[in-house]
Design brief:
287 residues; alpha+beta; Jelly Rolls; Arc Repressor Mutant, subunit A; five-stranded antiparallel β-sheet; four-stranded antiparallel β-sheet; 9 helices; 12 strands; 40% helix; 24% strand
């Protein structure tokens, strides 16, 4: 199976579901040729094999496999179907920034700010997702909803669609995510966010995660473009922003709460990070 291409989508925004259909091709029939459709077309084969090309790539998409056709490419039938072939197709739109990358490339995630939760969807262009029976149930419901009132079907369709995208992403993670160390970097981030109020060092991090500290640092740099301690420092300051806005605690108490032992040092680093002292930052959000 060709596992070389991953489609990355920065969220928010999220992909937006449009519609689902079900098609059956008899032997000798084939997928229509189209150019620059303008929306994503996700094919999910339930029986038989589709022979599909996109620009200079070609795939054989068989039972249980998926193919994500991109909105700005030329799609064509590489060959007619040889057996009866049944598949679902999902049309969806995405108004954010997306890119097609080599699956072996390291994913790059930003450090999450206090009032933001950016995420990057990583969808394999060609995959064999798990739980085919569940996917087929979702697809059948989505296709049936096409005849329902829009107001009644909207939430069900969107939820089922996002669950299918989750299955696609899980299939990529099941193959190792395409980037060695990505899982460790995510574990490191989760540990730092959970323990940011405590004293954390590279050595204590290595002991908790059971990896050499140099390897943890390398993985974090590949994925988050910073060291664990740089991530920890920025996350503490982001939590301090939140406490300055949501509480009336004195600066010294906030500094201690987010893991800084000395209030003057905290104030200095906060000013360097936010461009203003903590109390001025609080004042700009006060009535």
């Amino acid at each position: 199976m060709d596992k070389t291409t991953v489609i990355e989508m920065e969220a928010p925004p999220l992909p937006y579901y449009i519609t689902t259909g079900h098609s059956v091709y008899m032997p000798g029939e084939q997928h229509p040729n189209r150019r620059s459709l303008g929306i994503f077309d996700l094919l999910w084969v339930m029986r038989g094999t589709l022979y599909i090309g996109e620009d200079d790539k070609q795939w054989e998409v068989s039972q249980g496999q998926t193919l994500l056709l991109l909105p700005d490419r030329y799609h064509y039938a590489a060959a007619p179907c040889r057996t009866e072939t049944a598949f679902y197709w999902i049309h969806f739109d995405y108004h954010g920034k997306w890119s097609a990358l080599d699956a072996s490339a390291s994913p790059s995630y930003p450090v999450r700010q206090t009032w933001a939760n950016p995420y990057t969807l990583r969808l394999p262009q060609y995959a064999e997702p798990p739980q085919l029976a569940m996917a087929e149930r979702h697809l059948r419901k989505m296709a049936a909803n096409s005849g329902e009132r829009r107001s009644a079907a909207y939430w069900s369709e969107q939820q089922l669609f996002m669950e299918l995208l989750r299955l696609l992403e899980e299939s990529l993670r099941g193959e190792g995510g395409g980037a060695p160390g990505a899982a460790l970097a995510e574990r490191t981030e989760a540990y730092l966010r959970q323990h940011y109020q405590s004293e954390v060092t590279n050595e204590s991090l290595a002991e908790a995660l059971h990896f050499h500290p140099n390897y943890i640092v390398r993985c974090m740099k590949e994925v988050y473009r910073c060291t664990p301690m740089e991530y920890l420092h920025e996350y503490r300051l982001e939590q301090a922003k939140l406490l300055l806005i949501k509480t009336e605690w004195p600066v010294a108490q906030i500094a201690e709460e987010v893991g800084f032992r000395y209030a003057p040092y905290f104030s200095s680093r906060f000013k360097q990070y936010a461009g203003m002292p903590p109390l001025r930052f609080r004042k700009q959000y006060s009535l």
